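Appendix B, example 12.
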Amino acid sequence: MEKARSMLHYKSVPTEWWAEAVSTAVYLINRSTNTQHTSVTPYELGFKVKPTLEHLRVFGSHGYAHIDKAKRTKLEPKSFRCMFLGYAENVKGYRVFDLDASKVKVTRSVKLDEREVDGIYETLPARNGTVIHVSEDAHDAVTPAPVERQPAVEEPMEGVENDAPDVSMESVEPEQDPAIGRGTTRPHWTRAGTVPCPTDRV
């Protein structure tokens, strides 16, 4: 029952399929070694032949089962959506559940998505705010080179796409530098000293 329980929960299969899970688990146990017979399987003990394992599939996997030509017309679908349940007893084929017709059928050709669903991963929380980087191979880990900080260099501004609007001289406030006023000023040097005294040009 432990194997059947694990098979149901691995693919999140409803418990109503427990009988199919038990039947498939027995099928797999007969083709696996155990603690009593570590080198031979129960199937080999009974039939004197090693079992083939290439046809084994993951219980509860969803996929598409092929429909024979004799059971469909040329315009009908060639496959139907199904869920894998196990292995047929008296014929070579798979037991699948038709998801559209809600029927259990036997088919010989099926394509299943056997990838993990909500796989189990062992994770460790980061401590002290440390970020843990995981790589596939420790030898392939690359240590980032230190980045040299270059001194800031003042660069000239790029050319302005649009010309700045002209500012009329009348818009200048009177308290600004008188050299920007309407008239032109020229420094005047006195004989007594070297202090310039601005005078209006006549």
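The longest strand covers residues 79-87. Confidence is low (pLDDT under 50) at residues 120-144, 152-161, 167-172, 176-181.
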